[in-house]
TrEMBL record:
SUPFAM superfamilies: Actin-like ATPase domain, YrdC/RibB. CDD domains: ASKHA_NBD_TobZ_N. Residues 377-546 form the Carbamoyltransferase C-terminal domain. Gene3D superfamilies: 3.30.420.40, Carbamoyltransferase, C-terminal domain (3.90.870.20). GO terms for molecular function: transferase activity. Residues 2-71, 118-328 form the Carbamoyltransferase domain. Pfam families: Carbam_trans_C (PF16861), Carbam_trans_N (PF02543). Belongs to the NodU/CmcH family. The keyword Cell inner membrane does not apply. This is Carbamoyltransferase. InterPro entries: ATPase_NBD, Carbam_trans_C, Carbam_trans_C_sf, Carbtransf_dom, DHBP_synth_RibB-like_a/b_dom, NodU/CmcH_Carbamoyltrnsfr. The keyword Transferase applies.
């Protein structure tokens, strides 16, 4: 089966291609259009077709739209319940009408596509399949059975799904109808604090570390698990805790306290849901997806304090990942032997010859060092900032060593320096990339393997002074572990940095500037290098110096 998955309903339009049960390609439309989250600057582009992403996925496999056997659209208009409290009837009708016409919109975006092969896949089912069907443990022993938990803002009429995944099918055990929604309440908080809804929730998670959860007990009455697989999370009057903040207003202590309080209630509620699900399923493994699964602090509490032996989080846990999940679900339903996703590097890549031609066309001076890792390590050890562009781009919001900015972790001032490069708020942390075999020496708590930067770890006291730039205010770090087998060049770079600095890690943050999607092409990389105070660009095997 050749199955294209599509997300184009709420935000993060994306496409993914699965051929005979194997993930071939996946990409978000923002990497092509340069509109972050598929929202800006056009208000209605959240519903845009991922035309460029889908066309590229097909090109990657040498297919045409006519070659497809099925298209999975990660939203089912037949499941929408009009008139639910807290929803706008006009928007709901418009969204439903848009989804029903999706096959014909896709035919326009992909000439030659047969609209009759489009299949609607429930939004949360697509999320669940994106995690459970792609989980890394499916390549090992014990079959593919696991518990699965999805939580986000909303799907067609619900905000959450819990169940068991087995033999390509999700058995639903828990759900929650709107308007109760953990994701929507976190979005409300994001907007109340002066950030962008459905976009800046990760900023709230970072801000929470600066506050005290003094409102958590009062919030518990309105934010909690109900004990039967559901949640209580109706709209809240947040102004009783802290005044609405405008984007340019100062951040007051009560804003950080409110963020800390809602964050704590989210963690406690998810823990209760995980415990309930474990009792219902008896499974020892849990797969997480949905926008809330990008909350790495909550993920860590589930992994550390929850009842499951292993927790795996889909690296593209947000709505972009539903494109992959819709394709995996239809593949499994057709009987294809679905295999785990090979990694998050599922996007575009360029050959060395193609990269060199871009450099020649740009008429910039470049070199091809005999030892790229050593050259880059010299720059980092000398406290230079490196733009690192290697291999295929990442699917999902995290830079994982393919489109990254790298710097020295032992220099506290590099936090402000990188936030200035990227135009970010000063309270935002930067994260460490660390050799997997050294991680346990530096970090505790959280899963030992963390290749997708979706958990937080405590920084060992003796290391906090040695790597202050990647130690958050609460003594934690959101680490990425690097295995030599998975990314030998990156592992070689980390070893070279340690030889020069004595530190087995580097700062890793996404290669982009404020309000822009992550760099995707070599031209994007050159543009960012030319406009930002970056010392060295490592573009494949080539380097460009400032």
């Amino acid at each position: 089966m050749r199955v294209l998955g599509v997300n184009a309903v709420f935000h993060d339009p994306a496409a993914a291609l699965v051929v005979d049960g194997r993930v071939v390609a996946a990409a978000e439309e923002e990497r092509f259009t340069r509109r972050k989250h598929g929202k800006e600057p056009v208000p209605f582009s959240a519903w845009e077709q991922p035309a460029a992403a889908a066309a590229w996925c097909l090109e990657q496999a040498g297919l045409t739209p006519a070659d497809l056997d099925a298209v999975g659209w990660s939203y089912d208009p037949d499941l929408v319940e009009h008139g639910l409290p807290g929803t706008d009837p006009g928007w709901e009708q418009l969204r439903t009408d848009f989804a029903r016409r999706a096959p014909f919109f896709l035919r326009t975006a992909l000439p030659g596509l047969d609209p009759g092969i489009v299949r609607f896949v429930q939004h949360h089912l697509a999320h669940a399949a994106s995690a459970a069907a792609a989980a890394r443990w499916r390549s090992g022993t014990g079959g593919d059975s696991c518990a699965v938990l999805v939580a986000d803002g909303r799907g067609e009429a619900t905000s959450y799904l819990a169940g068991r995944y087995r033999d390509g099918t999700v058995q639903r055990m828990g759900t929650q109808r709107l308007p109760d929604s953990l994701g929507l309440r976190y979005e409300d908080l994001t907007a109340h604090l002066g950030f962008r809804r459905s976009s800046d929730e990760y900023k709230v998670m970072a801000l929470a570390s600066y506050g005290t959860p003094r409102f958590a007990e009062e919030l518990a009455a309105d934010l909690h698990a109900t004990g039967d697989g559901g949640v209580r999370a109706a709209p809240l009057d947040l102004s009783r805790f802290a005044e609405q903040r405008g984007p340019a207003d100062p951040m007051e202590p009560e804003h950080a306290d409110l963020a800390a309080s809602v964050q704590l209630r989210l963690e406690e509620t998810l823990l209760d849901l995980a415990r309930w699900l474990h009792r219902r399923t008896g499974e020892n493994r849990l797969a997480l997806a949905g926008g809330i699964a990008l909350n790495c602090v909550a993920n860590t509490r589930i992994a550390d304090e929850g009842p499951f032996d292993e927790v795996w989080v889909q690296p593209a846990a947000g709505d972009a990942g539903t494109a992959l999940g819709a394709a995996l679900h239809l593949s499994a339903q057709a009987g294809d032997p679905v295999v785990p996703m090979p990694g998050a590097d599922l996007g575009r890549g360029w050959s060395d010859d193609e990269l060199e031609q871009v450099l020649r066309d740009a008429r910039v001076r470049y070199e091809r060092p005999d030892d790229l890792a050593a050259t880059v390590a010299d720059t980092i050890a000398g406290d230079g900032v490196v733009a690192w562009f290697q291999g295929r781009s990442e699917f999902g919001p995290r830079a994982l060593g393919h489109r990254s900015l790298l710097a020295h972790p032992g220099k506290q001032e590099n936090v402000d320096r990188l936030n200035a490069v990227k135009g970010r708020e000063s309270f935002r942390p930067v994260a460490p990339m660390v050799r997997a075999e050294r991680a346990a020496e530096l970090f505790s708590r959280g899963p030992a393997a963390s290749p997708y930067m979706l958990f937080v770890h405590d920084v060992a006291p003796e290391w906090q002074q040695r790597i202050p730039a990647v130690t958050h205010v609460d003594g934690t770090a959101r680490i990425q572990t690097v295995e030599p087998d998975g990314n030998p060049l990156l592992a070689e770079l980390l070893a070279a940095v340690e030889d020069r600095t004595g530190l087995p890690c580097v700062i890793n943050t996404s290669l982009n500037t404020a309000g822009r999607p992550m760099v995707d092409t070599p031209v994007h990389a050159l543009e960012t290098f030319g406009s930002a105070p970056v010392d060295l660009l490592a573009l494949g095997p080539f380097v460009v110096r400032r």
